[in-house]
Design brief:
There is one protein chain. The protein is of the alpha/beta class and about 200 residues long. Helices cover about 35% and strands about 15% of the residues. It has 6 helices and 7 strands; from the N terminus they run αβββαβααβαβαβ. The protein starts with a helix and ends with a strand.
C-alpha cells in the first residue's frame, strides 16, 4: 500500500512538473544582454583564410620562436580547397595575433598520401581532375608569402603518376615524406599530424 501511494505521488509530481511544457509554456525569454557575444574573427597575417579569435587572457599563449611541422595526408574534393591546408593558415594567424602578443613561428608543411596532388600546377591538375584550375594554389601562395615552407613527398608523387616537373612553385619536392618529417623533427620542429 505504501509503495502504491509513493508511486502515485511521483506520478502526480511528474504531471505537475510537465504541465508547463504541455500547456505550451517555455523557458522565459532571455534579453540580449545575457546572450553570449558573437565571436569577433580576425585575419592578422593571411587575410582570406584561417580566421581566428583573439584571446589575450587565455592559457598557453603562442611562444616566440616556435617551430612546427604539419603532416598532411588528407585529400579532398578536387574542386574545393583542401581544408587541412587552410588550417595551416589558421596556425599562422594564431601566432600573428590571436594571443596577447604576436609571436614569430616557423612552419613547414609536408604533403603526402591523398594530399599529394594538391600541389600540382594548374595545367597538370586540370588535366588530371578535369577542372578549371587547382583550388589549393591561391591558399598555398598566401602560405608561402607568410614564410611557410611546403614540401611534397617525391615517392607519393611518383606513385600517383605525377612528375616533379608538374609541382607548382609553392612547394619543393622532398625525397620522401619520411625524410622530410624526420629531418625537420631533428631540427627541432614539433610534429603536428593533420588528422581531419
Amino acid at each position: 500500500m505504501k509503495y502504491q501511494a509513493t508511486v502515485l505521488a511521483l506520478i502526480v509530481i511528474a504531471g505537475v512538473m510537465g504541465l508547463g511544457v504541455a500547456s505550451g509554456q517555455t523557458s522565459p525569454p532571455t534579453d540580449k544582454s545575457t546572450r553570449p557575444a558573437e565571436p569577433q574573427y580576425i585575419n592578422p597575417a593571411i587575410k582570406d583564410y584561417g580566421k581566428v579569435v583573439k584571446l589575450p587572457g587565455a592559457a598557453h599563449q603562442p611562444r616566440d620562436g616556435s617551430q612546427i611541422v604539419v603532416d598532411i595526408t588528407k585529400g579532398s574534393d578536387p574542386d574545393k580547397l583542401n581544408s587541412a591546408i587552410e588550417k595551416v593558415c589558421r596556425f599562422v594567424n594564431i601566432y600573428a595575433g590571436a594571443g596577447k602578443d604576436s609571436a614569430k613561428v616557423d612552419i613547414a608543411v609536408v604533403l603526402h598520401g591523398d594530399a599529394t596532388l594538391t600541389i600540382l600546377r594548374n595545367d597538370a591538375y586540370s588535366t588530371r581532375f578535369s577542372s578549371k584550375a587547382n583550388p589549393n594554389l591561391e591558399c598555398l601562395s598566401e602560405l608561402k608569402k607568410a614564410g611557410v615552407k611546403v614540401y611534397v613527398c617525391g615517392q607519393s608523387l611518383t606513385g600517383k603518376g605525377a612528375k616533379p616537373s608538374e609541382v607548382a612553385e609553392q612547394a619543393d619536392v622532398a625525397v620522401s615524406a619520411l625524410t622530410a618529417l624526420v629531418n625537420l623533427q631533428a631540427d627541432g620542429y614539433a610534429y603536428l599530424p593533420m588528422l581531419k
